[in-house]
Specification:
This protein is an alpha/beta fold. It is 30% helix and 25% strand. Strand 9, helix 5 and strand 10 form a beta-alpha-beta unit. Helix 2 crosses helix 10, helix 3 packs across helix 9 and helix 6 packs across helix 7.
């Protein structure tokens, strides 16, 4: 079978390789998926580039945690009725050497979720990280023990892969108002089409005043933030006392936060990474996502579809950060 892999970190064009490997066989509790699509996320690019660590966790790594395909074999203890099922995958490459940049992948059966018939194949490669991250950020209970219903929400980067889903999900799950930050008219239009009530140009000095005007002077109940290092000043200014600041990313590490605005407003800081969700939280998010998918209420924003052979170009596109949506690879049939 065809695979793309790397055995050292570095620039995509230098380290990503294509090869033919033996087809893996599922063990107990596992299944094998004949892949059709592989989704590329910023975390995949950062790991390959060595931005987190230059030391590989495994001698060779087939990247990408997200993907979509059809179950074609099962191991002991897995219902044979799953063979032929369309599925989407989560955490395929998290703590594992073998992700979805290949013609097939073997993984624990629970990490292959049924993909509803009304959802396009390639959309299934956008769910494990972008959609689940957005949904967990929206579903997190607020300080009063409730959800997002009735809240005023600010989503940073509302045209990005995660932000675009977060805007939709907040709107669909009952937020009173959804505001988002964008940087171009094209991105603002995409965010509004996803359900944003207002878009804010975060590059402007009066971004906080834009938020206040959009809310009619009301403070924000929840900020869902893709980059705390860049957006903390805006978030702390517009959040209400007791508000929730939900963070799933940072463009810099370390970063600094001013102590007094945090404590005087009694703000709740909530950090998470979708790979490490508690089992109960993941179960809630999976069930909620399945319901949204079956209702056909989600837009899936795909910026580019490239063949597996062009994985280096695809990584470069994600690395540049200019794509309006997800970048996915089409996997050739075995």
């Amino acid at each position: 079978m065809q695979v793309a892999f790397y055995d050292r970190t570095g620039p995509a064009a230098e380290v990503l390789q294509l090869a033919d490997w033996p087809e893996p066989q599922p063990g107990p509790g596992e299944l094998r998926v004949s892949l059709r699509w592989s989704g590329i996320n910023p975390s995949d690019v950062k790991s390959r580039a060595g931005l987190r660590s230059s030391v590989l966790a495994f001698p060779r790594i087939v990247p990408h945690s997200d993907g979509m395909g059809v179950v074609d074999a099962v191991g002991a203890g897995v219902d044979a009725a799953r063979i032929g099922q369309r599925v989407w995958l989560w955490n395929a490459a998290w703590g594992r050497a073998f992700g979805t940049a290949a013609q097939c992948v073997v993984l624990p059966a629970a990490q292959a979720q049924p993909l509803p018939d009304n959802v396009a194949d390639e959309a299934g490669a956008c769910l494990g990280i972008p959609a689940l991250t957005a949904l967990h950020a929206v579903l997190l209970g607020n300080a009063n023990g409730g959800g997002i219903a009735g809240q005023r929400v600010l989503v940073t980067g509302g045209a990005g892969a995660v932000g675009h889903y977060a805007v939709q999900m907040a709107h669909l799950l009952g937020a009173q108002q959804v505001i988002t930050t964008t940087s171009t008219p094209e991105k603002a239009a995409a965010a509004r089409a996803a359900g944003a009530d207002a878009t804010i140009d975060y590059r402007q000095a009066d971004a906080a005043e834009q938020v206040r005007q959009a809310t009619g002077g009301h403070a924000i109940d929840r900020v869902i933030d893709m980059d705390i290092a860049s957006n903390a000043a805006l978030a702390l200014e517009v959040l209400r006392p007791g508000g929730d600041y939900v963070v799933y990313g940072s463009g810099a590490s370390p970063f600094q936060l001013p102590f007094f605005p945090l404590i005087v407003k009694n703000l709740n800081l909530r950090f998470f990474i979708v790979y490490n969700l508690a089992p109960a939280d993941r179960a809630v998010a999976l069930a909620a996502l399945d319901a949204l998918l079956r209702r056909g209420r989600l837009q899936h924003q795909i910026a580019a579809r490239l063949p597996l052979a062009q994985i280096a170009q695809a990584h470069a596109q994600v690395e540049q950060g200019r794509s309006l949506g997800n970048v996915v690879l089409v996997i050739p049939a075995a």
